[in-house]
């Protein structure tokens, strides 16, 4: 953990499935020379002429609606629906504002500070906040000219870039929905998302993504235009546009619309099968953004400009919250990592940019720790002792609240119910950061958000006496044995990894089976070009094998050749983990080492490197069946 208290519960409360985050703190302050005065003057004029209309229509109206409409639902599944603001005191709570307001206010106040940075061959391409705002307005005008209708959507599919952020904000400014789609999504998944969100415009980054849309465009009745913003267009179509062309670069000829016509909802999509559109209001984004920045004590210019690096997919709201919205709210400088960031180049970007803040999913911290341990192997004894002392000092500083998600944001609430004998219960949350509902899916929305506005997260955990939240697993992960006993796999898996340091992933299986089995992967190197795991073990794993007096350097040495020393060590680690479980049913009876480590390319990990348990169970069904068949034969 870094020098600022981790959000945890706050991020956890924004959307389901968002990973816990941690922060790394440094410092930095950057500013560009003054932007052209005509550009700044135009934005100031816009602010002056529109602010009175905006305040009346969006702030007072929302307060009046809350007072008049007692019992107005906390959820909706309709694209033009409205929801009740979760406010305990409407007079002291932060007044709701739109995304447009937040972006415009920052552009006026911090016009000449760096907003975005993108790496090009000749260095970094930088945009100031006033330039960023103007690009978003031009994108909004372009979308309107291309036929974007109110309550319809703009789909954005590509790797993180300034064009991604500009297109997203532009879609919202134009009165539409911004729908982020994973770049790994299949054409079928794109079709389902486009149809459900009534997508008028598809924005893609390259020809690979374009070909997916070409395959399905005949079945998309709302599609009016496709915009490609990177690479040369190889397949020209009647409704295809390129932002690389001077003629079609975010069209500049339209007159801006009044902000009172902006729709106060934004849309985010998840790519699981089937994809679900999760609607977010402007207030969801702006309120959570401001509350997050305040809780983490983010700084603003001129005191200091925060510097962030964007590398997790922006189609995930956890990444989008920090990379786009929080950075805008505090006038931070956001730099985009290279496309191969998760395959190794992220470290180089961090060294070059020197971010003051860094958020990541557990997988990223694990890899950073692996790299640190690998570097220690070749360092001097003095350097190793210094590293160990520094790590011990950091752990001592944060030990009081290790492994928790943090506290709820002010004016939000967290509770647990239906506790088991260990005090673990279902986690529920309440606040203005709760999403509006699933688009066109009233049944699932009602299951997720109750009549009092509480979100049923599906996660399991507990609150300590100081209201710190601890998440121990997800209800979907619970394994029910044939005896009816329910087992939470997460604590057992983490315990196994603690006893067997060369193991990267542990996946417990045993649904409707008489006992638990485990699938193990060992720590392998990654091909930085393809992202695929290699046969070679990591330097840390090899060094550990040497400590065991084993000569293994490859996964095949252990799996195929059956290295007896390593296999015996793993067996002892499983036994040690079994000794700590509360019941015999929670013991691992059989285990096997898989022939490859998990990866995003292989399909076992999602785009944010979260383990996809259902996918693992399908991919390794033969190995799982073999474990139980062997046990039956022994009987």
Automatic annotation (TrEMBL):
Record's GO cellular component terms: endoplasmic reticulum; membrane
Enzyme Commission number(s) from the entry: 6.2.1.3
Keywords: ATP-binding, Cytoplasm, Fatty acid metabolism, Ligase, Lipid metabolism, Nucleotide-binding
UniProt-listed InterPro entries: AMP-dep_synth/lig_dom, ANL_N_sf
Catalysed reactions listed for this entry: a long-chain fatty acid + ATP + CoA = a long-chain fatty acyl-CoA + AMP + diphosphate
Ranges where the AMP-dependent synthetase/ligase domain occurs: 109-377
Pfam families the record matches: AMP-binding, AMP-binding_C_3
GO molecular function: ATP binding; long-chain fatty acid-CoA ligase activity
Protein name (Swiss-Prot/TrEMBL): long-chain-fatty-acid--CoA ligase
Protein species of origin: Zalophus californianus (California sealion)
Lineage: Eukaryota, Metazoa, Chordata, Craniata, Vertebrata
Gene that encodes it: LOC113917864
